[in-house]
Amino acid sequence: MSLSQLNGKTYLIKTFGCQMNMHDSERVSGLLDSCGCLEVATPAEADIVVFMTCCVREAADTRLYGQCLSCKSLPAPPSGKRVIAVGGCIAQRDGEGLLTNLDNVDVVFGTHSIAHVGDLIAQAFDDGNHHVRCEEHEENPATTMPWHRATSYHAWVPIMTGCNNFCSYCIVPYVRGREKSRPFDEIVDEVTALSRMGVREVTLLGQNVNSYGRDLFGSPRFAELLRRVGDTGIERIFFTSSHPKDLLPETIDAMAEVPAVMPQLHLAVQSGSSRILKLMNRRYTRESYLDLIERVRDRIPDIALSTDIIVGFPGETEEDFEQTLSLAETVRYAQAYTFIYSKRPGTPAAEIDDPTPREVILDRFNRLVHVVETTANEFNQHDLHRVVPALIEGTSKKNASILMGKSAKNQTVHAPIPAGYSIDQLVGKIVDVDVDAARTWYLSGTVTGDPR
After folding, report:
1. Which pTM does this prediction carry?
2. What is the pLDDT of residues 290-349, one digit of tens each?
3. Which one is the CATH code of 3-133: 3.40.50.620, 3.40.50.300, 3.40.47.10, 3.40.50.280?
4. Is 167 annotated as a binding-site member?
5. In Å, how far are 142, 309, 376, 415, 421 from 401, measured between CA atoms?
6. Would you say 134 is a known binding-site residue?
7. Binding residue per annotation — 163?
């Protein structure tokens, strides 16, 4: 079957994991669109079901296996044959090994093989065989491929791929490869074009955006990139992820001085114990991290700080955990993603024995969640009785008459749809919300003035 014979096939993509996976899914969707495929809403309607996977935590493997196997019970699509494809990090890690337990999977493609997904699916339709492609290096970067963006107002913009950090718990460098920065002007030109197309907000993506350009120029140039992207006309700039060891003073200055860079920073700490941070190979200490937070807040006082924290890293003692707890209380995060350590085969941490009982780890996790919820609630109180601009993304999942948007600090903001407007008129617009309630995970109020 040639690519042209995919014309008219229906497809559905299910994405697990990080923002880079979301961007990869947009590229896969764009490739299928270019072949004449049509996106549908449910697996039962789809001739092609693609799972874009993450392997950072064990739960992602379990979820993939469950959803793949559930496709076996679906009725045959109108075309008579359904192709199941698995891409992303699990595909890159396991390759052909995925077929051992998932015998209904037809196509496996790794993180460096997205450009070939159309050919692989066409071959699977043609001969009914399994087709696997998991290259070690990317011949055709995903950024050169067509895309199907999920929204007209926001865009994921990868500035680099891969990671050189080799944190001892993390599988990412093994499935995404080494750091590779995109050319400077290519990124700026892309954001300029997006702005002219009406995109209002971009998120610059990289496993460690702070090291952007080190492979191209010998030293990071992320601060310069922020300034140049800020001159493109784009209204809102976010970025992720940001490694503490590489957050330079000039980057903090650019964040403070470029109006389009939003006052929000995700700075993963992972642990508050210097001993555990050393075992994690994070290459900073508790003290240096807290000093960095102080410098950021000195330049951007109202910044919303978010983080990732792992509980139960092998060998973590009660004293180590107490240091994590006290760090979270000191920093007072606006948001934190908290995880129980998940052993990833092939990483150094997976070789460390840990006798800590599961119930002890769960108790520590719950204590941390309580602190995070408390500080998030306190942070949101700062915007009570203020007017907060929010970029509208849709409606609340619980109430279709309530708008849902994001503030400049990445807070969820709710407000009733104002009289005289429909939701279609407001998605992608910025509205001012007079906040009359501040909860742990959202702000709510009423729209004041006209959308813009």
Report:
1. 0.90
2. 999 999 999 999 999 999 999 999 999 999 999 999 999 999 999 999 999 998 888 999
3. 3.40.50.280
4. yes
5. 38, 35, 26, 9, 11
6. no
7. yes
